[in-house]
Write a structure and sequence with these properties.
With 419 residues, the protein is an all-alpha fold. The chain has a single domain, classed as Growth Hormone, Chain: A (Up-down Bundle), CATH 1.20.1250. Strands 1-2 form a two-stranded antiparallel sheet. A hairpin with a 2-residue loop joins strand 1 and strand 2. Helix 3 runs antiparallel to helix 17. The longest helix is centred in the middle third of the chain and has 31 residues. The radius of gyration is 20 Å and the shape is globular.
Amino acid sequence: MRLGWLMWGLVALLYLLGFFQRMAPAVMVSELMRDFAITGAIMGNLSATYFYSYALMQIPSGLLADRIGPRRLATWACLVFAGGELLFAWAPTLHLAYAGRLLIGASVAVAFITCMKLAGHWFPTTMFATVTGVSLVFGNIGGVLAGVPLAEAVATVGWRSAMAASGIITLLCAAIIWLVVRDDPSDYGYRSHAHASALKNAGLPVITALKSVVGRPATWLLFFAGGFSTAPVLVFAGLWGVPYLTQVHGLGRSEAATMTSVMLIAWAIGGPCLGALSDRLRLRRLPYLLAVVVTTSLWSIFLWGNLSVSMLYPLLALLGFFSGAVIIGFAFAREVNHPGAAGATGGVVNMSVLGFAAILQPLLGLILDRHWQGALDHGVRLYDGAAYHAAFLWFAVSTALGVGMLFFTRESHCRMSES
């Protein structure tokens, strides 16, 4: 078990670094808009470029995880990831900055998939949601590092130097994963926890696995449920939350980053807690559905509650905590699909989580630009409360749609599908 946590944990470092880059633009909005002379809509697109390539790579990542294994896939991903970080850090033009973000998103797309693939081999099925929930803890540690620590680093050495340092750390991560990580306990002389169907011929053939996953209605219900319920917290904490808190509530950048970090910390706690609860109850549908209902209610309070800054702290914490229920969705999707298509299942479902965020980030930037009243601060657009309210209305709509998707799912009782 200890060895399993080590294998999983080293690949989870890649997920941590990827999450760091996912959230990093939130504390660099002013610098990026100023350096590249861009509007809110273009800023949203630059940040969302990560999500575009990440979402597009989810299915290929899942299929590659099934065929070549997590170790090789994670190592090569780290190398491409480091190249993207360095390109973004040194980009003299907006087009090269786009290219860097594209490489970053495409490479770290494998991180969560490889973590789930390793969990399926190194841990029993009844621990899968718990282990996957701890993955969210690792990711959100990266998100927290992209808050106040990155904000202070940007203020001290500039955003380019901070991004370059991240690239060097990623290169070290690649070497460690290649030297230590192994795909299955049998490589170290232990019994595997993987289902027999997953071990035979390394799972289903690629096309068969993909057809099996996309041909199940349950996959698509969980695909949309995950995207609709999780995108709002990624968009708020990952881009528009800090500008909103500084421009509407008058907070300093570090204080605003602290508030969004509270949301991410709560998300990191909620994932493993709700995942463990689901494992213990041996239920997937009910806890997932109830959590998304609560999240929809909390976004409604955020929009129409007229809350003070002090009340935003607990509200954002609760939003982060219950958004962690997406972890249950990954275990749920794995159980309703063929055991030999675990990577493909994770890829398809995870594609929606980042894909929907990729749509919302520039969409909200476009809405903000349309409600812009002409205010500028050293060339950076300032938006008022009405503009942010119009943009954030989509958060409540999105999570409500997630409730609708989960309503039509059927309980798996934590049992793998026998196909």
